[in-house]
Amino acid sequence: MESSGDSVDLVLVTRPAGFGMPTVCPACLPVYLYLRLAAVSFREQVSAVEPDSVDLPCVEYGENVGFSSENGGVIEFLRKEKIADLDADLSDSEKAELETCKAMMESWVADASAFEVWTRDNDRQCKVVYFSELPWGLVQALDWKQRLAVMQRLGITPENTVARSEELFRKASNAYSALSVLLSDRKFFFNNRPTSLDALVLGHLIFHLRVPFEISTLKGEILKYQNLVDYAESWGKQLLDKQAILANPAFRPKAPPSPPLRPTKLGSNEREEPAKKARSESDILLKKRAKYFLIAQFLAVLMYIFIAGYEVDDEDLDVDDD
Amino acid sequence: MMDMVSSTSSAWAESSSGSADLVLVTRPPAFGLPTACPACLPAYLYLRLAGARFDVHVTAVEPDSEDLPSVEYGENVGFASENGGVVEFLREEKIVDLDAGLNERERAELETCKAMMQSWVADASAYEVWMRDNSRQCKTVYFSELPWGLVQALDWKQRLAVMQRLEITPENTMTRTEELYKKASNAYSALSILLSDQKYFFNDRPTSLDALVLGHLLFHLRVPLEVSTLKEAILKYQNLVDYAEHWSKYLLGEEGNSIDSSFRPKTPHSSHASPPRQGPKERDNPEKERREKDIFFKKRAKYFVIAQVTAVLMYVVFAGYGVDDDGEDDGGDDDD
What is the value of pTM for the model shown? Predict the structure, then answer.
């Protein structure tokens, strides 16, 4: 940071690392790759206390924060703040093609991916992705809640699981076929330079190729398209692997387990910003921890009432009226 | 009406050389469209674009069914809910395949556009159709021939299901709908560019994408929804409007329904279907009609049972209130 002329940091907040990737979350990984493809220097911050949040990944740029849940997500935020815009040079018709591909990634591919990640058979890997630093009881509760929500969103019931999952995988397969044709033997999807589509596709491919799911139907499908595999492997090495990262001093991942952060080595004009930011980070962290603590307490109370209630009923029935 | 039914099928059978009728089963017509259902209209347009000869069979008793539209070809039936829907069925049965002439790259582009239509555009469309403000038009599309009580119940149930699927809650309605409309708008922008001033999306011949897009555009341009944000978004792209208007004249006709004699919608209202005027070649028809009758009966039975159960439940709830009051009277406490 000292070497850059800007006094503002770009911080990417993601879920934790795992399986050899700087972040193993399928929503965070594309954003990470986008910043790497754009060669923007940024700090990475890991947050493990927002397992069910739709706000992750998010990006902090000075005072502003862009959440993934806001319109257009982090990539749109980066464009609006003029930090990075990989799609700027596309022609009108290339932009139109990009939109259609993006829609396909966000629907057909994302749905099949969510199904696979949240399939009960894969819950061990799923917990590593989403709940890696939480206490056991909370993990069980949140895992159950999240799985229910995902299956509901995908319209999957115990009765229609087979038919629905067939449909999901078929659409993903059609998507891979289309992507393979559109990429052909090129380095990027459009015009010899990286775009947001490359980040999206690479994020998905690398995730499914690297995370060792018990049941990995999507990986099996991806392996049918050699050009997609080569594309993912080549960029995976360049953008994710340790050697590349260490060579770039701008990138140093750090995990904030406790408040407050006070980087003492910064110059005087930067002392305000890190302290303010650290305070707001610790606030958010505390609020989140408090929220989950309360949920756990509430659940415990409910369980007590429920179980205690059973005993009371039995006693009442024993009373005889003469 | 029975005469019309039998005369239609006999006229059709005599003039075609094949022995199998192609029948498209759709929801009822309205608003000048041969079918007002946004899922059925693209299937109808697909067959018209392909120049296929087919009968339209209107069914009003499957308002919440995902099986519509469906296509009957001889003994085989293709449902919208099955993999790939009606278009895929038509391709597998080798009846019609508008996408056959595309090269690999065009096919890939078609897939991406189809995904966009089925996600971004379809979601915004479903939201708009099922918004409370538009419930009057929505009922015309989906529940036009059902008794009032059933309409209310099914309408409520269906709306809940749609909003749940779209993940819309009372708290997030504003942000979520903004997001839905923005994606639809991006989709229209992309479609407008991809179509540019061509007659079709690909290569000077119609494909399944034209049917999909035209179905959506015509639906939103023609159905007079109270709140029609999508229509306004569509109107910003003159080439999309011209495309829709041009094809609507050609595919739907000025009156909206009858263009050539092969198309005459028929509604199976009465339960006895033994058309006396059929010739020897058409003995299959009674079997088909019996099957139709069966399906029809089952559906009516299902809704009758739902209505009965609802009535019983309501009685139980209200009768129950009376009993509780009696029970709360203390029979006198003994103080010891």
Answer: 0.74
